Amino acid sequence: MKVAFFDSKPYDISSFEKALQGKDITVKFYETKLNADTAGLAKGAECVCAFVNDTLDSETIEKLVDFGIKLIALRCAGYNNVDLDACKGKIPVVRVPAYSPYSVAEHAIAMLMTSIRRIHKAYIRTKDFNFSLNGLTGFDLHGKTVGVVGTGKIGKCFIDICKGFGMNVLCYDKFPLTDEGPNYVSLDEIWEKSDVISFHCPLTDETHHILNESVIEKLKKGVVIINTSRGALIDAEALLEGIKTRKIGAACLDVYEEESDLFFRDVSGHILEDDTLARLISMPNVILTSHQAFLTEEALEAIATTTVNNIVAFFEDGKSENEVCVN
Ligand code: NAI
């Protein structure tokens, strides 16, 4: 069994090599992302393994089908980068529905704490023996209101942590949980009452630019926005405008709408073409990490184990419990 593994990084290789021990699977690791131009590398394999910024559009899928690829194994939870209609009836897609929701929820909190307590500024100052506190005043989370959009696996972990801080938690979900826990309100109430808003819903047609210019008008002045879900939940230009007008107090972004050509790569020697991103990064109250929220040892181990199990189950039994697109 041969697998063509795209967008591979050293941390992927070590976690997968461990998970592959004793399995009759040969994996060829490619650094390049999967798209219609690179799909040819998968020739001779039976399965491709792809990640969040690989482009599995209809053109790529068609090529993979022509090359005899029998399975697309996503090593992530989200599948918004896959044209499922193009896959239907031709090629099944499996994913890793959950690996460590804690990794993402804790990263969202890490960004929030860093931002509001100005740790990113203090770190640089003390490295330079500058021990001044001027401009580093933060605020307590205790007693503040946090709005959580999406109360699935990650949202729930995030809510638990916020409750530990003594925050008042408001939630919105298109498909609310039936248990007593979350305090569900309308989206408008989230926008109007929250001091902090964190997105934990998937990217769909409905959630595309869920945070846009007209929504930003409704927000509380000084609100902190956290996005660890998918970049396109936020209209980045509207966000930038909201920051410039001081409506938005801070933004903590682990994802960005146009991240696919930049994130996971070192482009420090190049001129950044994306002016919106460059301007956002230049803001003192914007913290950006490059889709790193999942990156813990526990999550990597779980991703590798589940992906390998998905592949084995599919080729041995013809199905896997983690199929997104059934043939
Ligand atoms: P999940 O499927 O457990 O939860 C998603 C929740 O969003 C569900 O409760 C669902 O009902 C809700 N939802 C669906 N449509 C909605 C809408 N229109 N409005 C409001 N809520 C809606 O997913 P999980 O595991 O909690 O992941 C959430 C998102 O986090 C993923 O979709 C993915 O995009 C992102 N993610 C980011 C990672 C990173 O490294 N930054 C890693 C893993 C996931």
Molecular structure report:
- This protein has eleven helices and twelve strands.
- The strands form two sheets. The protein has a six-stranded mixed β-sheet, with helices on one face. The chain has a six-stranded parallel β-sheet with strand order 7-6-8-9-10-11, sandwiched between helices.
- It is 34% helix and 15% strand.
- It has helices at 10-19, 58-66, 84-87, 101-116, 119-127, 153-164, 187-193, 213-218, 236-244, 275-282, 297-317, and strands spanning 2-5, 26-29, 47-50, 71-74, 93-94, 145-149, 168-172, 196-199, 223-227, 248-253, 286-288, 323-325.
- The chain has 327 residues and is of the alpha/beta class.
Write the layout of secondary structure elements.
Layout: E1 2-5, H1 10-19, E2 26-29, E3 47-50, H2 58-66, E4 71-74, H3 84-87, E5 93-94, H4 101-116, H5 119-127, E6 145-149, H6 153-164, E7 168-172, H7 187-193, E8 196-199, H8 213-218, E9 223-227, H9 236-244, E10 248-253, H10 275-282, E11 286-288, H11 297-317, E12 323-325
Parallel strand pairs: 1-2, 1-3, 3-4, 4-5, 6-7, 6-8, 8-9, 9-10, 10-11
Antiparallel strand pairs: 5-12
Helix pairs in contact: 1-11, 4-6
Bound molecules: 1,4-dihydronicotinamide adenine dinucleotide (NAI).
